[in-house]
Write a structure and sequence with these properties.
It contains 11 helices and 17 strands. With 447 residues, the protein is α+β, with helices and mostly antiparallel strands. It has 3 domains: 155 residues, Zincin-like (2-Layer Sandwich); 166 residues, Neutral Protease, domain 2 (Orthogonal Bundle); 88 residues, Immunoglobulin-like, CATH 2.60.40.
């Protein structure tokens, strides 16, 4: 809600709270805020803002930003400087000074970016949980998504040119541009559906981050891969003792990942590894459903297994706190046979090895043999899984290669332990196999 008649604007969970109250005799206004639905937390922001709006269906998206705030943003020039003149006969011309970065100048673009994300999520996960959304500028690099109110970093308000002028790397610029969509996703994951304990907090960040990347993947697959590769490499960055950052612990350690030994551990694992876990899960479910999709090409994005499970998660648990196991159990309800390790309709193998583990394995294909059959080719081989814990089970996509055609998915095989043999049927003409050519498994970076 905006305090009218004064330069300051007070913004709080305006999409989720309704204001009642009148000014009293002393000129102060005492208000009472009533939420539309139970909220896990509430907050406010106060400042001199420029307001911009956008629409996401019937949802009003508002942004509130200031001219500066950040100390390391260049200040606007006090006056226009004069260019040196080569001759007195020349008429002095003013220089064109570069405008200082201004979050307020880009408030409308941020509002539209958030509105686009809301439209994308609402189509897939169900309606936006509140009647409005406010995004307010917050000094520094950190952002937070609360119910109906997003505290958004000043850097997320900058234009691409302004980020470049501040000498932010191209990858850093790309990461900053993802923040509005990430925080908007928290309206569903973290605010509407919350986590039970610190051991479950990871899925709020990992899932919100991955949902933002789903939008990017559709727009620019190359940039999507760049971010995933950054997260992969972050996990093998050594600390001052030479220990890899990813070894700080599994995602289920939550805030305990942050320590003096691993100051970057929480972000690298909760955000980075967490994002990868959801990418692996989505890809596994997608691959297993390809036969169904081929039989019914009219099935749209909302019918993708990963998205369908998230919509079910929202419908079942909105307004509730859930555990990591409850989250995975939803995905396991319609688990296809190709993802049923040891024949069980369960993702316990994924929980035990990947969610509760820290491995970044190396996968190799060995001893591949092709045997021509009347109906095609029988293929046998061995998958070696190096640098993996004893409990790590990996669903590995195997692609076939036929001369003159791009590689195509032949099937998925469970790599259980150091060595796992497999037997697959392939079309006639298959002469080569490739493991995970699209890089959908969180393996160690290739040297």
């Amino acid at each position: 809600m905006i305090a009218t008649g004064k330069p300051e604007a007070a913004v709080n969970n305006s999409s989720a709270l309704r204001q009642t109250g009148m000014p009293n005799a002393a000129g102060y206004q005492v208000t009472r805020w009533v939420s539309e639905r139970p909220l896990p937390l509430a907050g406010f922001d106060l400042g001199k803002y420029v307001r911009a709006t956008a629409q996401a269906g019937h949802i009003n998206v508002e942004t509130y930003a200031t001219v500066g705030v950040e100390r390391n943003f260049p200040n606007p020039p006090a006056e226009i400087e004069q260019l040196p003149q080569p001759s007195p006969s020349k008429i002095p011309m003013p220089s064109i000074a570069a405008a200082a970065p201004s979050p307020a100048r880009n408030a409308a673009a941020v509002a539209e970016s958030a509105a686009q994300a809301i439209r994308y999520y609402a189509e897939r996960f169900g309606p936006f949980p509140y009647s409005k959304l406010a995004l307010t500028q917050l000094p520094g690099r950190e952002s937070q998504g609360w119910p109906g109110l997003i505290f958004l970093s000043s850097y997320a308000f900058l234009s691409p040119k302004e980020r470049e002028d501040l000498h932010i790397s191209p990858l850093g610029q790309l990461m900053d541009s993802q923040v509005p969509a990430h925080e908007a996703a928290h309206q569903w994951w973290g605010d509407l559906v919350t986590w039970k304990t610190y051991r479950d907090q990871w899925f709020s960040e990992g899932l919100a981050n991955y949902c933002a990347l789903m939008i990017l993947q559709e727009k620019n697959p190359t940039e999507f891969r760049q971010i995933l590769e950054k997260y992969r490499k972050d996990l093998i960055e050594p600390n001052k003792e030479g220990n890899l950052r990813g070894n700080a612990g599994p995602v289920t350690l939550g805030s305990r990942l942050l320590s003096s030994h691993f100051p970057e551990g929480y972000e690298a694992i909760s955000y980075g590894r967490g994002t990868w876990l959801f990418h692996m899960l989505r890809t596994m479910l997608h691959d297993a459903s390809m036969d169904t999709t081929r039989k019914d090409p009219t099935r749209g994005a909302a019918e993708e297994p990963f998205v369908r499970s998230l919509r079910k998660l929202r419908e079942r648990y909105q307004g509730k706190a859930i555990s990591t196991r409850e989250l995975l159990n939803v995905f396991a309800e319609d688990l296809p046979s190709s993802l049923r390790y040891e024949g069980k309709a369960s993702l316990d193998w994924f929980l035990d090895g990947w969610v509760n583990g820290t491995s970044l394995p190396k996968l190799e294909l060995q001893s591949v043999k092709f045997t021509t059959k009347p109906t095609g080719v029988a293929v046998t081989g061995v998958i070696r899984q190096k640098d993996a814990g004893d409990r790590l089970v990996t669903s590995v996509p195997i692609y076939a290669v036929i001369f003159g055609k791009p590689p195509f998915l032949l099937g998925r095989v469970f790599a259980d332990g150091a060595e796992s043999s497999f037997h697959l049927s392939a079309p006639a003409g298959t002469h080569k196999l490739v493991l995970d050519p699209n890089g959908t498994i969180l393996t160690a970076p290739k040297s």
